Amino acid sequence: MGRESSITRIVGPENYAKLQQFKCLIVGAGGIGSELLKDCILMGFGEIHIVDLDTIDLSNLNRQFLFRQKDIKQPKSTTAVKAVQHFSNSKLVPYQGNVMDTNQFPLHWFDQFDIFLNGLDNLAARRYVNKISQFLKKPLIESGTSGFDGYIQPILPGNTECFDCTKKETPKTFPVCTIRSTPSQPIHCIVWAKNFLFNQLFTSDQSSTTGDSDGNDWGTDDKEEIERIKQETNELHDLQQIVHHQDKVHITDILKKLFVKDIEKLLQLDNLWKSRAKPTPLTDDLIDSAKDGHDSTDLNAIWSLEEQISQFINVTEKLMDRIVEEDYNIEFDKDDQDTLVFVATAANIRSHIFGIPIKTVFDIKQIAGNIIPAIATTNAIVAGLSTLTALRLLNFLPYAKTNSGLDVNMAFTARASNLSKDRYLSNPKLAPPNCNCAVCAKVARGVVKITEKGLEKLTLSQLIDLLKKKYNYPSETSLIDTSDQRLLVDFDFEDLLDRTLSQAKLHDGSVILFSDEEGDESEMYRKPLEIYLDVVEESAINSEIELPALEIPLFTPPKQEEEDEGKETSTEESPEKEEDKNGIVILDEDEGKDEKDGTTTKRPRSPDQTENDSKRAKTSKNHNDENGVIELD
């Protein structure tokens, strides 16, 4: 009762009664999400749903206070709910799943909530929830922490900047040749050891191996170097047989192949070393002498080269003993000391060869294991700010009423804000939407409700006619499925006009972009319309399809020179790359046409593209490599 009376005094009896009827969605059950769940319960939200894809691992326990040792490998969302159930008066509903999965979480599922609270560390998921917020006109509170830095950003669609209004740091890209031939940083050697060497020797699925297939962005046109990389990959099959046959006598052969012979071959490529320092291969004598002894158990110490070699041999023996028991498939795990030490020693030996500073095992654990530095108190402060701001955004604070979203403040910790070092928190005012934002400003957006029967009966031609009539678009338009950048219809591509929406592979959750390709006499264009297809029951609407009531404004595309000048500051990133937590992307782009359904893969027409830009560059789909490196293929 004491808890409820305190909240009642803050928001008032009437608002507290409303709060008990409100539903909120928390996305992410990690460091911030755990704190958000606790705070929303204490605040008195009537119903709280929490979504997280991940399971608990050892590194979570020091900063995610709802989890214990016994919870390792359990789903975060369900475990968090169990941990708070005993003091909760709210209805709690956990989900384990990807919030971007439209089958599990369709748009009408999001529509039940009054507010979204993000506690994510994944850029793609943040952007997705931001877009859902824009579609449904629902308030969102974005938050994030890194060490002592933290921030919150309230987002009120149409009134304030959205998450994508400001350009986000893009993931760093490393061509294959950098990883495989010319590393210059510790991260290059760690990626080589974890995503290439470890996978080749100890995993059965090597589809994510760095640079072993045609079509890669090798980062070089040197055919000799590319052939060497391919040959090196093929030769590793012999080393894999040593591991699979548990032939411990020949572990030194693995070392000599990787760190002597392969480096000597690399030195024969004179073009690589015209402006770079040459690597120095190990010697057979050094490897043979180091195999007996020189052990160290201090993971925070910098090991000598002899200790690195000795530890590499010892841990490879341990992994050989495990590989049969684990069905020839050992996965890298930052909390598995055998796999961690293997990756660390391999990376450090390679770093020594290329004259790169070596790291402690603990440092490499942070990088290879994608551990984002986090401090429990920062998470708690940021989550508290999020829930308090939610009350203000929902107008539950009588003494701090909001007439518009611009009355609400952001919040930054002192280091994150760069505004003031004299106080811990800075709270700048929110800004209106960025007129150059491709998410909230450059497109109109709406939800089209359609029945299953409508998907089966309505053709693309009929849909386009409905959109033209409803929103006054001209005769020449284009239609693109944004989920995989498929061009469905264009003024010079009409092969699919007679296909139904289901035959065109459109379904519940599909997002399509409808664009004006013609303009009028004064060179004004109708703003592009992004449509979310929401499949509903027949009883929910009066016909098979229901278009939203929208006013689509006209706009004047910028001149080509202006467009070129603005490229560096554009908030749109295309093609969008899902960010690996460690900021590493291995480029592997493949272009083409889907011959099965006849659709063409093209870049969608950007809202500021001119009329003459009728030919679109092909883009590739994204795939997230579970090992922490994203490969675009």
From TrEMBL:
Residues 561-577 have a biased composition (Acidic residues). ATP binds at residues 28-33, 52, 60-63, 76, 121-126. The keyword Ribosomal protein does not apply. Keywords: ATP-binding, Metal-binding, Nucleotide-binding, Ubl conjugation pathway, Zinc. GO terms for cellular component: cytoplasm; SUMO activating enzyme complex. It comes from the Eukaryota. Residues 593-626 have a biased composition (Basic and acidic residues). Pfam families: ThiF (PF00899). Pathway: Protein modification; protein sumoylation. Residues 552-633 are annotated as: Disordered. The keyword Metal-binding applies. The active site is at C177 (glycyl thioester intermediate). Residues 9-438 form the THIF-type NAD/FAD binding fold domain. Zn(2+) binds at C162, C165, C437, C440. GO terms for biological process: protein sumoylation. Heterodimer. This is Ubiquitin-activating enzyme E1-like. It comes from Zygosaccharomyces rouxii.
